[in-house]
Specification:
The structure holds 2 protein chains of 2 kinds. By secondary structure, chain A is an alpha+beta fold. Chain A is built from 14 helices and 14 strands. In chain A, 44% of the residues lie in helices and 18% in strands. In chain A, α3 runs antiparallel to α4 and α4 packs antiparallel against α6. Chain B is an alpha/beta fold. Helix content of chain B is 31%, strand content 19%. Chain B has 5 helices and 5 strands; from the N terminus they run βαβαββαβαα. In chain B, α1 links the parallel β1 and β2. In chain B, α1 crosses α4 and α2 crosses α3. The chains are: A alpha+beta, B alpha/beta. Chains A and B meet through α4, α5, α6 and α14 of A and α2 and α3 of B.
């Protein structure tokens, strides 16, 4: 009987965070252990005793790639706890800035991190040597996303304009129109991206996932909606803690999220797409169909195509919001009167649902905070994908198998700050 | 006509860009940010300073159209904590220690090598790496790493001084 262990170490910027170990005994996968590090615990402690108004900027520091998701989730939770509703323009601008983040995050992942896997390149640097124009297109596409975030947020990496109650300043119509030409280019680039990735070779692999995403009555979900699944869940966001639980696993200092009723689930582009295909624009639906997708996609490797479709949608939707934007008469911020309450919010970060809960006292101080990032919720699903994929492909040459395991983890675009610094995998034979 | 040194002419109006890379909540990982901030405090007219998380594609945007960039980051290797490693990206490939071998990170080393492949490196990119030791969550630096920061700053200031034209040097 042949035993082997496929090991993928997580390391890099932060040492000792753990890793990924896949043990194989004979023809069976005996164990998959994913250990990741979880900064939110540190931030939850950091938030205690701080003012409600500080939460958006503090939590934005959790992630260098999706600070907007953290900011919007924090402001929604605070506004919910104080019983505040913002106006139409503020709501639209929040959607716009978050879509900008989707564009940059998706473009980065598709072009710089994931595409090289499919095309057999070690990394995007090697890919750039053969396909400089394609890599340049990816960088430009990402840049358009940055520009949207910078214009609305005042800064590209950690936007400073977002606040509880609205914005510090609203852009003028003239300012916001400067994005149109760039977004029109990006929309075409996104279409080309879909055509490009649709032709990639995809490993044959599907699972019967429980997809969880937000669902809004009219829109493809970004900042608002009910939490729904493909298996009957349909709850308001403030019931999150009644249905989801985080459990300790002995081999990881991170908490794994599961459904209370039992079972893992998947969040992110694939879940959003499967649960909200009908909310995509006709162009995005058509582009998805031309790329060979139906309204249902259970092959996680095709997540790269779904990301490209979402990128197209994000560009179109950004253009729609900009077209409808009008200066005034709304004020840039609504009045805030803190009260003792608990606020809940969930948004669709590029990688999936991000949940925040804050308990606030009458002075507006944060008594406690809970933050559940998408990557923490996907851990179990990543493990199960690997278990299933390795079992199906044990006859593959080891080098190819390890490559595809890495690729399988990357399907989830695990958050660089929330989770994951993967070393090149190495195989340890018993 | 002013003399130039090393292809740089700070008087021509293209200031040196200093980029500090790191995470202020990750102990020694903040060393690059701290170095940048110490340079900012000097208020030099020919130097611009930014502090970044180190997302590679954004770094490439930052140094586009720049003549001279000085970047501070931490790195890992077998060397002693606080060891300073300087290299010129135009002249040599990024040393192996600077890559994080991450499959999910497109960081400093990746940005430099991708920029090289796409012919988008600035004419001069000097990287100062400070060997870190502790990267756990928290705001405190290890003593050796903290001590290395002003030394790396001093060396970078020496670079800037050499780039100045004789006339500028006389003024300072």
């Amino acid at each position: 009987m042949r035993n082997k262990t496929l090991q993928v170490d997580y390391l890099a910027r932060v040492e000792g965070e753990g890793g990924l170990i896949i043990s194989v005994k004979g023809n069976e996968v005996s164990e998959v252990k994913l250990r990741i590090f979880e900064p939110p615990r540190f931030f939850e402690a950091l938030l205690r005793g701080r003012k409600y108004s500080e939460a958006p900027d503090i939590t934005a520091r959790i992630c260098g790639i999706c600070p907007v998701a953290y900011q919007i989730t924090a402001v929604h939770a605070m506004e919910g706890s104080f019983g505040i509703t913002v106006g139409r323009q503020i709501r639209a601008l929040r959607r716009l800035i978050h879509l900008g983040e989707w564009i940059e995050s998706h473009a980065l992942h598709i072009y710089m991190l994931h595409a090289p896997d499919f095309l057999g390149y070690e990394d995007s640097i090697q890919m750039a040597k053969d396909h400089p124009d394609i890599v340049q297109r990816g960088l430009q596409l990402k840049k358009v996303g940055n520009e949207v975030v910078a214009l609305i947020g005042g800064r590209e990496i950690h936007p400073i304009n977002v606040r509880v109650g609205g914005f510090f300043r609203l852009p003028s119509k003239r300012e916001i129109l400067t994005l149109v030409e760039r977004l029109e280019w990006a929309r075409e680039a996104a279409l080309e991206t879909i055509r490009w990735v649709a032709a990639f070779p995809f490993p044959q692999f599907e699972r019967d996932y429980t997809f969880i995403a937000l669902r809004h009555s009219e829109e493809y979900p970004v900042n608002e909606g009910r939490l729904v699944s493909n298996k009957g869940l349909d709850i308001p966001v403030d019931s999150y803690d009644d249905y989801f639980v985080e459990e300790h696993v002995p081999y990881s200092n991170a908490l794994h999220s599961i459904l209370r009723e039992g079972g893992e689930y998947l969040v992110g582009p694939l879940a959003r797409y499967n649960l909200n295909f009908d909310r995509l624009s006709p162009t995005a639906q058509e582009a998805a169909r031309s790329a060979g997708l139906s309204g249902v996609c259970r092959n996680p490797f095709k997540g790269i195509v779904v990301r490209a479709v979402e990128t197209l949608y994000a560009c179109e939707e950004a253009l729609r919001i900009i077209g409808e934007y009008e200066e005034g008469p709304e004020t840039h911020v609504v009045d805030i009167r803190p009260r003792a309450a608990t606020g809940y919010a969930c948004t669709e970060a590029p990688r999936g649902i991000l949940y925040h809960r804050y308990r606030i006292n009458e002075d507006g101080d944060i008594m406690d905070a809970k933050i559940v990032p998408p990557t923490a919720q996907n851990q179990k699903s990543i493990e199960s994908d690997l278990r299933g994929f390795v079992a199906q492909n044990l006859n593959q040459p080891e080098e190819k198998l390890v490559w595809q395991c890495e690729q399988a983890v990357r399907n989830y675009d695990p958050c660089i700050s929330c989770a994951t610094h993967l070393l090149k995998p190495r195989i340890v034979r018993e | 006509m002013m003399e130039k040194e090393g292809g740089n002419d700070l008087a021509a109006g293209n200031p040196v860009l200093v980029i500090g890379v790191g995470n202020a909540y990750r102990s020694d990982d903040a060393a690059g940010l701290m170095a940048a901030s110490q340079i900012r405090e000097k208020n030099l007219p020919e130097v611009e300073v930014v502090e970044e998380s180190g997302e590679g594609a954004y770094l490439m945007e930052l140094w586009k159209n720049r003549d001279t960039v000085i970047l501070f980051d931490t790195f890992r290797s077998e060397s002693e904590p606080g060891t300073i490693h300087r290299f010129e990206a135009g002249a040599q490939n990024v040393p192996k220690d600077f890559f994080h071998y991450s499959t999910h990170l497109f960081g400093v080393a990746e940005a430099i090598e991708l920029a090289r492949a796409l012919d988008r490196l600035p004419p001069r990119l000097i990287v100062y790496g400070i060997k870190g030791e502790n990267y756990s969550m928290g705001p405190e630096l290890s003593p050796e790493v903290e001590k290395a920061v002003p030394e790396a700053v001093r060396l970078a200031m020496e670079d800037v001084r050499k780039m100045r034209t004789p006339k500028q040097s006389a003024l300072n």
